[in-house]
Specification:
2 domains, single chain, Dihydrodipicolinate Reductase, domain 2, Rossmann fold, 30% helix, seven-stranded mixed beta sheet
C-alpha cells in the first residue's frame, strides 16, 4: 500500500484553510492531521505536530507564520507551504506559481519551503511575465495594474462586514490608495521589472472571484507590436498549460465571459487580449477565483507537485 502523506493545515479555521481542507478531505493519498482546539496556542504541542508531518500548510497572519516556521526544527522532514506574505520574496523559498516559467513547477516539486502567491500578483504575472521574457516589453517599463476582487480576499473582518451589510455594502470600493500594498514586492520581483507597479485594486460586493487588467500603449512595447503579436506571445508561453488558458483573440465590446465570478471554485485562470492596432492600445485581462487559483487551489496544486501526486488532483472545489 502506498504511504499516505500527512498534512497539517495550521490555521484551518480561516477561509483559505477551510477551502484547502475541503479540497483534500476525500483524498485517499492524504492523511489530514489536526491539533485539538484547546492546544492550538500551546507552542510545545504545535512544535511536536509541525515536526511530525510530511507537509505543513500555514494559513496564518505573517507574524504567526514566521513563528510557525521557527518551530520547525533544523533537519526536520517537514516541508512547508506558507500562504502569508512573510516569505514571498525570500530567496530560500520557492514561489508557488508553477506557471511563472517552464521550470517553476520543478522548483516547487523539489522545494522544502514554498511561498503560496497572493491572489492579485498571479494575474499580473501571468499577463506580464511572458511579455518581459519574450522581449516585447522592457524590464524598465512602467506598468499599471488594477481590477476587482470579491470581498473574501480581505479576510475574516471584511467578510463579516460585507455579509452583515448585504446589499447596503459598497459595490465598488477602491483601496490601496497609499500605494503601499503588500503585494507590490512580489509583483515587481517575479515580473523582473525595475520599477514599482502602479497598483489600484477594488473590492466588489460579491464573495469571490476576480478580474484584473493591465492597460498598455503600443509605445511601451518594442517596435512593430500588434494585437496578434501580443496574443501570440501569451499563447506560446502557456501552450500545454493545464490551468492557465488564453482566450481567442477577438474584438468585443463586452460579454458574459468577462465575469469575475465565472471561474469560481476552480483552479483555472483565463487570459484575454483586447487591442486596437489603429489606436495603438491594448488591455490585457485575467479572470480567476481569488480563493481558488488565487489561494486554496494554488496551495493544493503546489502540494500535489511536492508529494508527487497528479498536479490537478482536487485543485477544484467539489460542488
Amino acid at each position: 500500500m502506498t504511504k499516505r502523506s500527512s498534512i497539517f493545515i495550521d490555521g484551518e479555521a480561516g477561509t483559505t484553510g477551510l477551502q484547502i481542507r475541503d479540497r483534500l478531505k476525500s483524498r485517499a493519498d492524504i492523511e489530514l492531521v489536526s491539533i485539538a482546539p484547546e492546544r492550538r496556542k500551546d507552542a510545545a504541542a504545535r512544535r511536536e505536530l509541525l515536526n511530525s508531518v510530511d507537509v505543513a500548510i500555514l494559513c496564518l497572519p505573517d507574524e504567526a507564520a514566521i513563528e510557525a516556521v521557527s518551530l520547525v526544527d533544523p533537519g526536520s522532514k517537514t516541508r512547508i507551504i506558507d500562504a502569508s506574505t512573510a516569505f514571498r520574496v525570500n530567496p530560500g523559498w520557492a514561489y508557488g506559481f508553477p506557471e511563472l516559467d517552464h521550470a517553476q513547477g520543478a522548483r516547487i516539486a523539489a522545494a522544502s519551503r514554498v511561498a503560496n502567491p497572493g491572489c492579485w500578483p498571479q494575474g499580473f504575472l501571468a499577463l506580464v511575465k511572458p511579455l518581459i521574457s519574450s522581449g516585447l516589453l522592457s524590464k524598465d517599463v512602467a506598468l499599471s495594474y488594477g481590477g476587482i476582487s470579491g470581498y473574501s480576499g480581505g479576510g475574516k473582518k471584511m467578510i463579516e462586514d460585507y455579509e452583515t451589510k448585504g446589499e447596503a455594502a459598497s459595490h465598488f470600493m477602491p483601496y490601496g490608495l497609499t500605494f503601499k500594498h503588500k503585494h507590490l514586492p512580489e509583483m515587481k520581483h517575479y515580473a523582473g521589472v525595475s520599477q514599482d507597479v502602479l497598483f489600484q485594486p477594488v473590492v466588489g460586493n460579491f464573495a469571490q472571484g476576480m478580474l484584473t487588467t493591465v492597460p498598455l500603449h503600443y509605445s511601451q512595447f518594442r517596435a512593430g507590436v500588434t494585437a496578434r503579436v501580443i496574443h501570440g506571445a501569451l499563447e506560446a508561453y502557456f501552450h500545454g498549460c493545464r490551468f492557465v488558458s488564453v482566450a481567442p483573440l477577438e474584438a468585443t465590446e463586452r460579454g458574459p465571459q468577462l465575469d469575475p465570478q465565472i471561474l469560481n471554485n476552480s483552479n483555472a485562470m483565463r487570459l484575454h487580449v483586447f487591442a486596437n492596432d489603429d489606436r495603438q492600445q491594448a488591455v490585457l485581462m485575467a479572470i480567476y477565483d481569488n480563493l481558488g487559483k488565487g489561494a486554496s487551489g494554488a496551495a493544493v496544486q503546489n502540494l500535489n507537485l511536492m508529494i508527487g501526486a497528479d498536479e490537478a488532483s482536487s485543485v477544484d472545489l467539489a460542488a
